[in-house]
Amino acid sequence: MSSYLDLGGCRKRRRGGEKVFKFKTFGENGCPVEFDGSFRDNVKALVEYGHLEVNLCGNGVFSWSFQLEVHRHPPLHVVLFIVEEQIQASSSSSINLHCKHCQYVGWGHHMMCNKKYHFLLPSKETVAACFNCDETSFDDPNPEKGKFNLVELKGHIMHGVFHSNGFGHLLCVNGMEMGSDQLAGYQIMEFWHRLCTGLQARKVSLNDSSKKRGMELRLLYGVAYGHPWFGRWGYKFGRGCYGINQPIYQKAIEAIQGIPLCLLNHHLSISNNDISVIFSRYQALSDHSMVTLGDLFHFMLELRSRLPKENSIDSCNPATVETNCRWSPKRVEAATRVIVEALKNAEFRWVSRQEVRDAARAYIGDTGLLDFVLKSLGNHIVGNYLVRRCLNPVTKVLEYCLEDISTVFPNSEALIINNSKAKPRCKITKVQLMKDIAYLYKHILKDQKPTLSTGVFSAIPMATRIILDTKFLVKEYTEELSMKGNSNCSNGKTFKLLCTVISRSDEIDEELKKPLPPYECVCLKENATFDELKQEVEKNFREVYWRLRSFVVETIVNLSVKGLDLVMGSVEMGQKLVFIGSNEDQIGMDDGGGSGIVDCLCGAKEDDGERLISCDICEVWQHTRCVRIPNNEEIPHVFLCKQCEEKIVFLSSLP
């Protein structure tokens, strides 16, 4: 098996000597670079280790590639591309320069940044579309017309983008379930999380559209754990669509989690006995009484993470070893216990078959018996432990590991040998478990019957819609820049301040009430003057923001100092300062990317990414869903909001 992104056979990429990095550690500190600067400094340091690509995304756009080894045996590599997109390079096109993702998540007040950095793990299809390996040379200075832009292609395994101020968006994650046959979703998220942490990103948003077997994971995991699947990496409620706020979302989660199973079972068993069977099946596996719907889904998802991929688990007799052999059940049981004890002494790490066998031989002299039991123990439960077995892809040697599953099967009895008197009552496989989860999801959460539309169950459809309408999540990586040690500083600069700026205005008090640009960490030498501080502030903010290309600092809010005064002694280390200045080069662009006023019946006041329609009289935007225009219908050519329609009716009635 070879990597689907092994581009060595493509003559356009025969470069030789390109360094290969480990996928599982890439992004950690020191892999490949020490991340000890600001976000922009860390990105610049990282791309120094990449291979500079030519004409990958058009002329004038810098891009770098990194070969990443997922595992060696069988060989699997992926390629990370980092593309630097400058506003100047995009300004000639007709696209809106303002970031729609910032607008949707509530960051529409942020000023446009000079640069964006795209981080892409392309899929096999996107690589084939972007790199036409049979025609022009990869480094051809005059590439073929019509060549695809890697950033604009869809279907990447991962696509994230950062603004130069450290705010970013995770645009897509396509794991195995979404089409990638090489990387699972959690592996991609771990990789992205390492990148964000290492680069010292500030905040990252995402639009949660993750699914598994047709089930919306933000609903499934919300019921089971109280947070979406991305919550495993710290992503929380960022902004809801249709006017939903965090308290409403939290109440919806609590309402649907707290539905009593006894009442649910009583109402549904009248028309659907299958749900009662599923309830009973998993209640029998649990060591405690499951009271609510949240308890049930939580137990089922936890059980899924523990089950072997192929083998089944007995709900009564969770451990079985085949005894159709020349040894008595008693001797097989004794050998099994010795092997399990040897694995326990290994402290739950993976050990080779030979190591386990040698440790067990101190107590069991019959090597034939040990070989038989080792062969039979793959993915079997013994007491409160699951004995895992797999082939090491590098050494090609069988290895064993012990996993404690007492939290899933706390009632596990002692080892029971298969014979005529010990027959399992029922078995649970991972396939059956997923079918049961999907069945409950469909019949309870999605396709509610009329029996669930009254009483306490009327909360289910409303809570479900609220959870599904909560798509935008945010992870806050660095709330405040570190003030410890020498991080974020270089060249002997050790004195750090947090600085931001505002444009000069006659109404400074009103200007200060507006959202300020995020604070930037400015590093100075210990003998730096305020004139030098102002120069550093100008340099930093000119580098980050498009509108501040010619920003000039004039004064500091609430601080009366002279230009030659020393900074140290006048202000404290890590103090926040606001600088007032003028910006001569006004380019005529407002900071917000909105195209009009949003004032919807649901309470939304800003564009949240859902379909909108504008009134032809007042030009106020509203959600099509809120004005009862189904999503499968086209927007009408003429539309009047309710208020304008009432005014017209009233005026027409006048004499």
Automatic annotation (TrEMBL):
Single GO molecular function: zinc ion binding
Entry-linked InterPro entries: MS1-like_ubiquitin, WHD_PTC1, Zinc_finger_PHD-type_CS, Znf_FYVE_PHD, Znf_MS1-like, Znf_PHD, Znf_PHD-finger, Znf_RING/FYVE/PHD
Annotated keywords: Metal-binding, Transcription, Transcription regulation, Zinc, Zinc-finger
Domain PHD-type: 597-647
The keyword Chaperone belongs to this UniProt entry's keyword annotation: no
Domain of life of the native organism: Eukaryota
Name by which UniProt lists this protein: PHD finger protein MALE STERILITY 1 isoform X1
Organism field: Gossypium hirsutum
